[in-house]
Specification:
Oligomer: single chain
Number of helices: 27
Shape: globular
Low-confidence stretches: 1-21, 628-634
Strand order of the largest sheet: 1-2
Distance between the termini: 30 Å
Bound molecules: heme C
Mean pLDDT: 86
Amino acid sequence: MIPVRRTLPTLAVIALLSPSASSADFGFDNAKQLFTTYCISCHQAKPASGGLNLESFMVPDSLVQRGPKWNSILNRVRNSEMPPRGAPAPPSEQREAFTTWLHEALKKEACSTGISAGAAPIRRLNRAEYSSTVRDLLNVQMDIGAGLPMDGAGGEGFDNAAETLFLSPVHAEKYLDAAKTALEFAAKDPRSRAKFMISTPRPGVTPREAAREILTAFLPRAFRRPVDDADLQVYLGLFDIAQKGKATFDDSVLYALKGVLVSPQFLFRSEDPNPNPQPRPLDDYALATRLSYFLWGTTPDSLLLVLAKAGKLHDPEILQGQVARMLRNQRSFDFVQSFVEQWLGTRALGQTVQPDAKLFPAYAGDEELRGDVRYQPVLFFREILANDLSLLNLIDSKFTITTKKLQKLYGLSIDPPRKDRGSQPQRIELPEGTHRGGLLGMSAILAVSSHPQRTSPVLRGKWILDAMLGTPPPPPPPDVPALEEPTGPAPRTVRELLSQHRANPVCASCHSRIDPLGFALENYDAIGRWRDQESGKPVDAKGTLPDGTAFEGPDQLKTVLMARKDVFIRNLTNKMLGYALGRGLTLKDSCVVDTIVADVQNHDYRAGALINAVVMSVPFRYQVESTRAKVVTK
Ligand code: HEC
Ligand code: HEC
């Protein structure tokens, strides 16, 4: 391969903490001017690069008529992909003003036609959902998902996004294996058998009648909706085939059930298509299914199905009552863990992120501590949800969840000391000055945004911008040299090493916004322990953002973030809605997000308000016009 020498982007854009002042004055005429200066040379009539002739976008009406194309312009400019490298590019303030203006203009257009339900693509149950669903159907306590292929992340960054959940031949085979294993296991366990082997051939009951009874009860549970006789006949047919092959009654039933567990109606979540151009409320069974996979990650239980049958789930009082019940149930732990670990990136702990065992032996060698570290953010979120507390506790809080081991790691002495062995996580009130409130005081967050051997203010700054504020910096240019390691005869602090690149204006265009946030966390080492010194020098935890906002240490950083609490809540809402819908959000969804954010604000930022508003939202409860979706196989 021939190495390509690429130039750095002239100035990279990041719509970071505060949109620049100039975006407010930006208008359509400025956009035209930007096109003329930086785009039109390549994008005019024949031959138009990429088939895009920007001359027809020079009239405001085009915002209405050509929304999707404008959206693609927004994305290409925002990601610094247009103009291409090497061509003259607008300065970063102008680019940012343009993208901020365009985003607002398109959103206004998208929202002017009212809130829309958005697409609800058909999707396969992901690995965790399949596992929990089979567990609940057969009452087996085994992780049958272990042998299934991992799912990629799509949309808002979650592994339940329809975009990635197609069915490959590899998947089909593995699911068949998993179904077989689970059924064989269940058939041997009396408690499992009682759940689905509800009939046997007795005097006066033919094997076929017994099988029919079993399937009649099993199919609606497996398919999450009532079934008709044609469905039943398909699986009775499988039973018949096995019987003809001289299989025992048990084996014949299991053969039919295996057919159920690999059928598209079971493996895929699909909803009856809406043939009308008008959005309509989902049917109750589909709503029960959405609700159950959102808050439990598994199939609806009998109460949800009973309410669906009675047609009561759309009643707001009943629906919200169910949400409260489901959140109290132990199964909601799966939702919290799945959501929090994917949102915050802490699932990578112990997998792709491992603090160095030589430098941090006490951490690396203690499995229990590692577990405590990983579960802390999950249990903290669950505490907030279970007690309907303010979501702003995630930014800063006067309490946290710890075990004795975590308290030791954090140097926390709690008064009165805990009497129990301390291995169970417990809520503790934090005395002043412990620096352990909110997510940023947690080892899991501080470790997942560090390198194995050292902290990285860059990675921590990026983590805050991405996970907390939803404004990730663009990826670094390809030819940046790696940081020298802070070792050698005259060891330097990571901060000193980084100062080199902030002196270079090209590097500074990104790093002046990323690094200061991370500097404020330099008092935490790579596994989140407090330190006052690094490489023999006092820690310097001062940071100043490009707009002049200055702060020192985690407590002041949290104050800065608290002043941006609505940016944080909007990002969390985006994540929660994306997770609930199991798809990436579109510009149209941002109108819905606006209304949810307003609702959360009106309820003092309480966690329950967010979940309720998501469940009550139009995209969650309605479906748009759709034709019968085809099962995608790749
Ligand atoms: C030096 C030539 C050049 C300049 C200047 C340029 N582009 Fe492009 N553009 C291309 C080429 C070549 C493609 C097709 C390849 C691709 O998609 O990357 C393209 C593709 C695109 C696309 C995708 C086409 C589509 O239909 O979705 C968009 C959008 C776009 N450009 C917008 C812009 C905007 C906005 C500017 C100015 C800010 C700009 N471009 C400046 C060369 C250019
Ligand atoms: C377009 C924005 C952008 C520009 C421009 C940029 N960087 Fe970065 N840089 C990043 C991001 C984002 C990361 C974090 C990458 C990651 O996630 O691994 C990073 C990471 C780094 C790191 C690794 C830090 C660590 O702790 O390991 C160094 C060193 C670095 N950049 C130096 C530079 C230098 C020197 C320049 C200028 C020549 C530069 N960067 C220009 C965005 C940028």
